[in-house]
């Protein structure tokens, strides 16, 4: 109860409500309902616009009209808005949530249990992604896109330097060291992305930080996989073989453009972003993507982002909302045009612009393969977003060489326990 | 028409009627006054009073997961925590580190900024400067630029790879090196932990100096000019007029400017937030205001409206105490 509630009472703002189709004079035939959908898709230049996709649905479904709203702020701000809206009873029926945010929202009672309705649709999506939209045995929505980690590299530069494309972490370290001898970097350590980027790498190495033990959360980062990731980066930072640059800083982009950075571990959704960063430079047509070099025994990768569309608590028409949810999230080509690696089953066609940047490679087939090899063991705890600050701070210190890389994971563990305790959830000591 | 009726009655009646009419008019006028006041009062209550009350209330509550299963019970229960949130804030080293930073920041930045603002105001007020309107607007302009945009521009100016200042310093270093025959490096790392507070101070000084200058200028222009004339007749120099008349007479304005600056400093948010985006070591709790925001957004623990409100209200209290101390000291010293 707060300002949003007061505003609702004053102005009678209601979303997700039933309204008789009285708009205009073309007397709408029957009862028509409205579903609101809050998303943060990029909706950029050259993409199939969300509005256009939804217009198609609205034409075909006069009884279930969908209005989509783009949220332009940060992810954390959208969660705060959704929470206020749920309390005020004015929340959108459907909202895009990052997979790591789903448990938090579930614990706070912000999500609708739509397990029964979802049964008919879950078969259309990759099982691992469906699992991320399922908390405590309850399905709360449908997955939209995934963010498996992959390895992007400048194939032309690799050839020029005589480097082989790495398939294991050790080979990647060797290639990076060799590249450094030639004044190039084959990876970048990215402090600002530490939370998802590094936890994804440990997942690829087989780590599962959060596990249920006797009805309590057990938080443990002292496994072999996490140690492997820590020593990998420690070695490269100590020998100054890796570029240390924030993913969203100017330095990173500049290093890409002037070809000092010729390789990077990144999420699948970075494929179009990297192409955009280097648009118009000598890099065009030179890059390529492969599955993440293995950090563990088998070909496995970890999640770095990705999101689903959840049904929010208080949605008046969950069944219709889920019907639309299924339809929207299986619009593979339009969603791929938005830069997403979709969670829906089916072939993704690499858009021409991306194909030409990556030297004609069928990029999305590699990304889809990475999707298949996502670690099934790494799950998120309620409150995972709260560990970001501490991890990033520790990652920056590690990047500067003033603290060991292992401190990042120690910070994650400490911070995760604090987050669980702050939420009032049971933690095993 | 009897002469027996007391003659005072009609008069009293008339005066009573007049009083009644007066009352009625006052009431009617009062009603009109309230009518004009109402839009402000309603908006003020909605956007100012209600949020403060909601925030005070929520600072005494915490939200915990309902049920004690792994994911709680699919909801939160609000429990009365009394002073728990405050105890957590006041026992939180990060809060005090942040408060220490902003106070250190304020102790240096406020005198520099207000000193500069006073000098600018004195210059504009003196007859040395023509085109006062132009300069007044020019100095005030930085304040009109949204804080976040100003912070972004300054981030660019300070950023290690792009800084135009450093590019100039590199050229200067090279010239000096050629002259001295030994390597010279005059470049500044504006984002180093030791210098970032100075960089932020530069940003806020740039933004707010013109704003404070206006406060001083308004106070200077309210000083009756016959005082200057009298002083000049007594043989006072322009500098003496500034020192003996102008500066003492803007005392009240100084008090206002310092109070506003103290409050603004405690709430320091835009500049560090934008800088933290490119300097992750700052974290999302570098200043108390950032801590409050991160708590509310759930990106730091403890998170939620309760802890966030407790941080905000603690900040307000500290700012209030500092402002009160300053006002008292100022009164003492001018007495």
TrEMBL record, chain B:
<dbReference type="GO" id="GO:0005886">
    <property type="term" value="C:plasma membrane"/>
</dbReference>
<keyword id="KW-1133">Transmembrane helix</keyword>
<protein>
    <submittedName>
        <fullName>ABC transporter permease</fullName>
    </submittedName>
</protein>
<dbReference type="Pfam" id="PF00528">
    <property type="entry name" value="BPD_transp_1"/>
</dbReference>
<dbReference type="InterPro" id="IPR051393">
    <property type="entry name" value="ABC_transporter_permease"/>
</dbReference>
<keyword id="KW-0472">Membrane</keyword>
<comment type="similarity">
    <text>Belongs to the binding-protein-dependent transport system permease family.</text>
</comment>
<dbReference type="GO" id="GO:0055085">
    <property type="term" value="P:transmembrane transport"/>
</dbReference>
<dbReference type="InterPro" id="IPR000515">
    <property type="entry name" value="MetI-like"/>
</dbReference>
<feature type="transmembrane region" description="Helical">
    <location>
        <begin position="137"/>
        <end position="157"/>
    </location>
</feature>
<feature type="transmembrane region" description="Helical">
    <location>
        <begin position="32"/>
        <end position="54"/>
    </location>
</feature>
<feature type="domain" description="ABC transmembrane type-1">
    <location>
        <begin position="99"/>
        <end position="326"/>
    </location>
</feature>
<feature type="transmembrane region" description="Helical">
    <location>
        <begin position="249"/>
        <end position="269"/>
    </location>
</feature>
<keyword id="KW-1003">Cell membrane</keyword>
<keyword id="KW-0813">Transport</keyword>
<dbReference type="InterPro" id="IPR035906">
    <property type="entry name" value="MetI-like_sf"/>
</dbReference>
<keyword id="KW-0812">Transmembrane</keyword>
<feature type="transmembrane region" description="Helical">
    <location>
        <begin position="102"/>
        <end position="125"/>
    </location>
</feature>
<feature type="transmembrane region" description="Helical">
    <location>
        <begin position="305"/>
        <end position="329"/>
    </location>
</feature>
